[in-house]
Amino acid sequence: MSRQLLIDMAKHNIQHCKDGTVARAEAVCEVPAAHYYDAEHWQAEMEKVFRRMPLMLALTCEMPDPGDYRACEAGGVPILICRDKAGEVQAFLNMCAHRGAQIMEQGNGNTHRFTCPYHAWTYNHQGELIGIFSEKEFGQIDKSCHGLRKLPVLERAGLIWVIPNPDSDLSIEAFLSGYDDMLAHFDFANWHLFSRRSLPGPNWKIAYDGYLDLYHLPILHKNSFGPNFPHKSMYYAWGPHQRVASPDPSLLEYEGVDEDQWDTTRLLSGVWTIFPHVSIASFDGGGRGVMLSQLFPGETPGTSITVQNYVMEKEPDEEQAANAHEQFAFLEKVVRDEDYATGLKQQRALETGFKDHVLFGRNEEGGQRFHGWVEKLLQTEDSDLNNLFNGAQGPSF
């Protein structure tokens, strides 16, 4: 079913190529400029978006074995993700039940247990408290009531989502709106995490606007890769998640060819975004790879951190690795020196307060939809979240 949807999108693309058209939004959209810098609005986003929504925080391929773990921070919440002895993924607050110290340093590793560096309280992969240092002197407590606090977690399509709220009852499956079925065609579970690095940037929405926008490619990136890419965009939505693609004349060669012969890799072209903070863009640099970017708000409204993950379909040999390093360095430079350098200047300009709103054109439907979902979430109570996503569906033709 999901492959047929890939084919239907390709046919939709082919028709626009033949007609010389592109799908557009109904009207130009205005977004208040203060949404990029107002502290109260930003705090609401932290609480109602980044601490309530499932966030894609890890890849299956970076923690494939029992005992593998990743410690990170999302929305200001310290999180510990691990794979238990049964091969299942678990997620917890990275916070000791004793005094709240963070148990594991940020990063990846493998361990048979988690031991707090402050007082050596020890936990297993299920988050159960299994050891108290100098227990007789400490005093009697019920260990079963003092384990790590579990977080909702789901592993799908080679990606791992976590909700940074232990009290959430939001269905991650409903939130994904069937998008995970589409992402499964990449087969990320069997890929290889080649490299990872972090970049500072402007407000998280200024940064994310660029990942949904092909309009700027031949302008802002005119001296890097922009002239080789079309600036026209078509958007396909699964609830809040979106695929961005351009009319691709090369797909015309599939006309008259049995659909079973259509190359899935070709059908996956474009940029796949996972609300509210992930972009997946395909590249060829020493082998098939993707730049999987995770955007997180910084410590203030005007800052953000982007974690760039370069993931490859196969572990590269020496020559391929050299080419991939070159490709990754190039992509980092483009984002840092072109996208985020421009975004940081935009941030400073907007913070003057002299502009009431910014515009998203009819050709920028992705940005319109993204900001619409952010605002919708700010108005939605916890009790209504599942209803909000249960009605979300993918594109139809």
List keywords for this structure.
2 domains; Naphthalene 1,2-dioxygenase Alpha Subunit, Chain A, domain 1; 7-stranded antiparallel beta sheet; single chain; Rieske Iron-sulfur Protein; alpha+beta; 397 residues
Report on the structure:
The strands form 5 sheets. The protein has a 7-stranded antiparallel β-sheet. A 4-stranded antiparallel β-sheet has the order 5-4-3-6, with no helix packed on it. It has helices spanning 2-19, 39-50, 135-138, 172-176, 179-183, 204-211, 217-220, 264-267, 318-350, 365-378, 385-390; strands at 29-32, 55-59, 68-74, 77-83, 89-93, 107-110, 114-115, 122-123, 129-131, 153-156, 159-162, 192-201, 234-238, 241-245, 271-274, 278-284, 288-297, 304-312, 357-360. With 397 residues, it is α+β, with helices and mostly antiparallel strands. The two termini are 14 Å apart. The chain is built from 11 helices and 19 strands. The protein has 2 domains: 2-53 and 178-389, Naphthalene 1,2-dioxygenase Alpha Subunit, Chain A, domain 1 (Alpha-Beta Complex), CATH 3.90.380; 60-162, Rieske Iron-sulfur Protein.
Question: Secondary-structure map with pairings?
Answer:
Blueprint (H helix, E strand, L loop, with lengths): L1 H18 L9 E4 L6 H12 L4 E5 L8 E7 L2 E7 L5 E5 L13 E4 L3 E2 L6 E2 L5 E3 L3 H4 L14 E4 L2 E4 L9 H5 L2 H5 L8 E10 L2 H8 L5 H4 L13 E5 L2 E5 L18 H4 L3 E4 L3 E7 L3 E10 L6 E9 L5 H33 L6 E4 L4 H14 L6 H6 L7
Antiparallel strand pairs: 1-19, 2-11, 3-4, 3-6, 4-5, 7-8, 8-9, 10-11, 12-18, 13-14, 14-15, 15-16, 16-17, 17-18
